[in-house]
Design a protein that fits this description.
628 residues; alpha+beta; 8-stranded mixed sheet; 21 helices; 22 strands; 37% helix; 21% strand; elongated
């Protein structure tokens, strides 16, 4: 028999398959089962209008069988089958996709709930990733003769007549021998094969059957087990997300989540939606109660499971969720997508972009609802995932800042409770024109800052920024409802009256020599030493001048590379009303050595108050003891 050559394009694709472009070769089973399901769809569709088919929905099935000794996997269907011309055209030519033609011919198809998966004719060739030889025996519905198509890869294929009773197709894969890099034998293992079928094809709408060996108690011998073979249906067929919301109980949602995403806790929230319009898709999205176990590791991958008509295309489609929602889990199923071969192609998919946008909106709506109607739940959510949202404001040059700004919460000095920016602004005192905040390790520590006390004394509330990202996020926001933000440890707060200010300026001016001298003692550590009147009863504090605040400097210094360029310019502020001020004047006049020691002590104290490390703790301790 003469061997026929594949068409040029097919040959190229086949070569790619043989030398495998897929990293997960296991998807061949998904592709072949999808083809079988399509073929059944076609015959089923015909049966609706053509009595000669003589089959009803329950008669259709796909069977899979693995023979370890012969190293074969067989996939059979009782679908529409192929004539010899169709075998030639469909399996010999890549560009001609049978599914695509069928869809065009039958505009009716959609209305009749027949969905044909896969408009991209590469699926079948994926079998060559795992098989050295592929045999396709097929009998078209209504034909008298069956044909066998055989190929051992790139050098061509043959087609010959053969025997087959019923219409349908049987595909036999001769599985490759294992190599150092590839374990092909795994696919011959019953357990592995059935696991893959469940993973990828669980929601195929026809039963996928396989003879499975189980170990069962032996009735004749107490306590012993025997092997029993049963034909099992592997797929569950009805995807939860395709059911009507009203038919699903909360428990069902929760169980599905826990099984599918391996969590032992119920999710905090479930979003189940059916969308039609620019894109048609079903989505089932979960907000977990706790971060996924590997959430903080580098290995964590965000994304949703992507299905097309119940067939898994991708386990973690990262393009479906923005980074700030990286914690969500879930499923998207859309008939608009094709069973494409690569992530790269999928990334550019226009439909996918529309779906991603719609999902982003759905999650935001759910959170908004939670924030407005169930504040406790929202705060729980925020304590777990709020940092993510704050990074979302900062990321991508603030592209999403307006969409996210109303989702963030901060604790504040008034009651040490969470407030939104909106709530803060609405509760602002009449004469207050900026939003005050302070940074620190914890709310408790910030509450004890001298500056906090001073601002509170004026009747203003202070937001507590305790996450590294907080100040970066609000720098990006710049303002909220027309109100600017002011770091009470950095910015000139203008809390004093004109007279008080004038008095302070005069004092600083008059003490210039001493303050310069003190700055000199501290080398390059500070950019200025000055008197202040805005720190209550405390003696000293540190503040920062310019763009970089103390907290930002701390964060930046921990980043890889140290970010040396971004250093905070520190200012040592001394309470002009404090007794220590008088002492400093006295020492400046009489004892410069002691002034130097005092300056060092005050500076180190100020660092400690701000939560900064001090360079030489031993020296500092010694200095203090000496004074005693
Ligand atoms: P696609 O399914 O994306 O069209 P494939 O390369 O997987 O591409 O298959 C090419 C064509 O071969 C299909 O469109 C279909 O017409 C035909 N085909 C494949 N498998 C079967 C099958 N089991 N029964 C009937 N036709 C099949």
């Amino acid at each position: 028999m003469r061997k026929k050559q594949f068409k040029a394009e097919s040959k190229k694709l086949l070569d790619m398959m043989i030398h495998s472009i897929y990293t997960n070769k296991e998807i061949f089973i998904r592709e072949l089962i999808s083809n079988a399901s399509d073929a059944i769809d076609k015959l089923y569709f015909k049966s609706l209008t053509d009595d000669s088919v003589g089959m009803s929905k329950g008669d259709f099935e796909i069977t899979v069988d693995a023979d370890k000794d012969a190293r074969t996997i067989t996939i059979s269907d009782n679908g529409i089958g192929m004539t010899s011309d169709e075998l030639e055209a469909n399996l010999g030519t890549i560009a001609k996709s049978g599914s695509l033609n069928f869809k065009k011919d039958n505009e009716e198809a959609k209305k009749n709930d027949i969905e044909v998966i896969g408009q991209f004719g590469v699926g079948f060739y994926s079998s060559f990733m795992v098989a050295s030889k592929v045999e396709v025996v097929s009998k078209a519905f209504g034909a008298d003769t069956a044909y066998k198509w055989i190929s051992e890869g790139a050098d061509g294929y043959t087609i010959e007549e053969c025997e087959k009773d019923e219409a349908g197709t049987v595909i036999t894969l001769y599985i490759k021998e294992d190599t150092d890099n590839d374990d092909y034998s795994q696919f011959l293992e019953q357990y592995r094969l059935s696991e893959l079928i469940r993973k990828y094809s669980d929601y195929i709408r026809y039963p996928i059957k396989m003879a499975m060996t189980h170990s069962v108690p032996d009735e004749e011998k107490e306590g012993e087990y025997k092997e029993e073979v049963t034909v099992d249906t592997l797929n569950s067929m009805i995807p939860l997300w395709r059911k009507n919301k009203s038919e699903i109980k909360e428990d069902e949602y929760n169980e599905f989540y826990k099984n599918k995403f391996m969590d032992y806790e119920n999710p905090l929230s479930v979003i189940h939606s059916k969308t039609e319009g620019q894109a048609t898709f079903d989505a089932l999205i979960y907000i977990p109660s706790k971060p996924p176990y590997d959430f903080y590791s580098k290995e964590y991958e965000k994304g949703l499971q992507l299905y097309t008509n119940g067939v898994l295309i991708m386990d973690k489609c990262s393009d479906l969720v923005p980074d700030y929602f990286s914690f969500v889990k879930g499923i998207v199923d859309s008939a608009d997508l094709s069973l494409n071969i690569s992530r790269e192609i999928l990334q550019q998919d226009y439909q996918l972009k529309i779906i991603a946008k719609a999902i982003d909106k759905k999650i935001k709506n759910e959170l908004k609802k939670m924030l407005n109607n169930d504040r406790d739940k929202y705060e729980t959510f925020f304590e777990t995932f709020g940092v993510q949202l704050k990074w979302g404001i900062y990321a991508n040059y603030g592209m999403e800042k307006d969409a996210l700004k109303d989702f963030i919460l901060f604790k504040s000095s008034k009651e040490n409770k969470y407030v939104t920016l909106k709530e803060y602004v609405e509760a602002m005192a009449e004469n207050q024109d900026v939003i005050y905040y302070a940074c620190g390790e914890s709310a408790e520590k910030i509450a004890l800052l001298p500056q906090t006390e001073a601002v509170k004394a004026k009747g203003y509330d202070v937001l507590y920024f305790t996450d590294d990202v907080d100040e970066f996020a609000i720098q990006m926001l710049m303002e909220y409802a027309g109100k600017k933000f002011a770091n009470i440890c950095k910015d000139d707060l203008n809390l004093s009256s004109e007279e008080e200010k004038k008095a302070l300026d005069e004092k600083n001016e008059a003490s210039k020599d001493m303050l310069e001298e003190m700055k000199g003692y501290l080398n390059d550590e500070v950019s200025a030493v000055k008197f202040t009147d805005s720190i209550g009863n405390h003696a000293v504090c540190l503040s920062a001048e310019g763009f970089v605040s103390l907290e930002m400097a701390k964060v930046l210094s921990q980043m890889p590379g140290g970010n040396q360029g971004m250093k905070a310019q520190l200012v040592l502020e001394i309470n002009a009303e404090h007794k220590v001020a008088e002492k400093l004047y006295e020492l400046f006049a009489q004892d410069k050595d002691k002034l130097k020691a005092y300056t060092n002590i005050l500076y180190n104290q100020a660092r400690l108050i701000s939560g900064l490390q001090i360079e030489n703790p031993t020296e500092f301790a010694d200095m203090v003891t000496d004074l005693m």
